[in-house]
Design brief:
- This protein is an all-alpha fold.
- The protein has three domains: 149 residues, no CATH class; 208 residues, no CATH class; 64 residues, no CATH class.
- Helices cover 80% and strands 0% of the residues.
- Helix 3 packs antiparallel against helix 10.
- The longest helix is centred in the N-terminal third of the chain and has 59 residues.
- The two termini are 48 Å apart.
- InterPro entries: MFS_trans_sf.
């Protein structure tokens, strides 16, 4: 039973030998084709030079993969010692790592290179969208100061009007020094308000331009066709969008408001009281001091609000870095695990066949070791042992004093009884064959 199973395994190994070579050749060829596609995407130069360079590289990869796995399939299953197996496994690990380094990532680039580049462009669009929004929010943050500035300007203007008509501040109607000072403060607030309103229009226009650029970039990401021309046009749009974001950062009027707030308090110049009576002059001075205190308070509030705006982190200028398909699949490898798995499997699948052969040959060796020696010996080895036995017997009859020659490893394991039995069996078979040859069948006349 064991001999039959062992023989069937031997027959199976012989039957799949051609298939194994064919499978290795097909896998090596497939890996070479995808390696060619991946190598062509990262090479620069004339089309002819790129074609031949990629072709030679892919051919070298195919030959190397076929040779490596052929050697492993031929030698690894027959190495039985633990040290030899460990050494072969170490060599297999080094070879597999080299194959992955020179082929698998290019296979992945051929399988998912375009998708990886599109992934890179898509994430770049999201980054630029975030930068544009931040720049727009920083530029619009100054608009939050507009209500306070408007209220302060209106308050100064109203006080000037009331003082002019009823003299509620100094007790004397007319356009005197107090009215002049209040009108001056109102005019300064109005100037800040106009500056903020003008910047708002400019900011809105720049933001609209940036939105158009982003829309064009999104269209390029999802458009059909080859990825290389789309990536080139995308780079152009990215440069233009970077300029818009920089312009947005430069249009902020927060620094101008900060300087104007300092000027309100530090550059405060009160006019000389123009009252005719000393009592009126005294009242004008008191009102001017009150106005100065109000202006100082307003200046501190504006300066603090401007400092809060200026303390926001600025938008760092982003530089678009185009990636080749091979670099993109490495950069975004976690997003393309199926493509990587397929690319690696093409190169390392022969290793599975090597281990299958190793398991089968190991089973064959264990089955043959469990069989008796008489079942393991072949007919040729048995005949050779008998010839040696006859020679030894003849030499012993002529020269008994001469020691017999040592038997070989096959003959040494045979017991004398086994040799005698086998000798008798062969003698009987020889006699039977002679009788068969000398026996003549009766003719038709008999």
């Amino acid at each position: 039973m064991a001999l039959g199973a062992s023989q069937r395994l031997h027959d199976g190994v012989a039957a799949v030998e051609t298939m194994t070579r064919f499978a290795l050749a097909v896998l090596a060829l497939a890996s070479g084709v995808y390696t060619y596609l991946g190598a062509r995407s990262i090479l620069d130069g004339s089309p002819t030079a790129v074609f031949f360079a990629a072709l030679i590289y892919s051919a070298s990869v195919s030959v190397g993969i076929y040779a490596f796995w052929s050697y492993m399939a031929r030698f690894y299953p027959h190495v039985t010692t633990r040290t030899g197996r460990a050494g072969m496994l170490f060599v297999m690990a080094i070879g597999a790592a080299m194959i992955m380094a020179m082929s698998s990532w290019l296979n992945a680039a051929a399988l998912a290179g375009s998708a990886a580049v599109e992934q890179h462009l898509s994430e770049t669009v999201e980054d630029y969208t975030t930068d544009l929004d931040r720049a727009y929010q920083n530029a619009l943050s100054v608009q939050g100061l507009l209500p306070d500035i408007q209220r302060a300007g209106e308050r100064f203007a109203q006080l000037a009007g009331v003082e002019r008509q009823s003299g509620s501040l100094t007790g004397t109607t007319g356009s005197g020094s107090v009215v002049q000072l209040l009108s001056q403060m109102s005019a300064q607030m109005k100037g800040l308000e106009n500056g903020i309103n003008a910047s708002r229009e400019q900011v809105a226009d720049l933001f609209a331009q940036g939105q158009k650029r982003l829309e064009a970039m999104r269209t390029l990401v999802s458009a059909p066709g080859a990825i290389e021309p789309r990536a080139d046009q995308f780079s152009t749009e990215a440069v233009a969008l970077t300029g818009i974001i920089t312009s947005l950062a430069q249009t902020s009027v927060a620094p101008s408001i900060r300087r104007a707030a300092d000027d309100l308090s530090l550059g405060f110049i009160a006019p000389v009281p123009d009252g005719a009576a000393p009592d009126l002059i005294n009242r004008q001075n008191q009102v001017m001091e009150t106005v100065k205190a109000s202006v100082t308070s307003q200046s501190k509030a504006l300066a603090k609000a401007a400092d809060d705006i200026l303390s926001r982190p600025p938008v760092v200028e982003r530089r678009f870095v185009p990636l080749s398909s091979a670099a993109a699949v490495l950069e975004y490898a976690p997003d393309f695990i199926p493509a990587w798995a397929g690319a690696i499997s093409i190169d390392l699948l022969p290793g599975v066949m090597v281990f299958i052969l190793a398991v089968v040959h190991g089973a064959i060796r264990r089955q043959e070791e469990d069989m008796p020696f008489a079942e393991r010996i072949t007919a040729a080895e048995l005949l050779q042992a008998l010839e040696i036995q006859r020679a030894v017997s003849a030499m012993g009859a002529v020269t008994p004093a001469t020691p017999p020659e040592p038997l070989g490893p096959v003959e040494a394991e045979l017991e004398p009884g086994d040799i005698a039995d086998e000798h008798n069996n062969i003698t009987n078979l020889d006699l039977k064959s002679r009788r068969d040859r000398t026996h003549v069948a009766p003719g038709p006349d008999a």
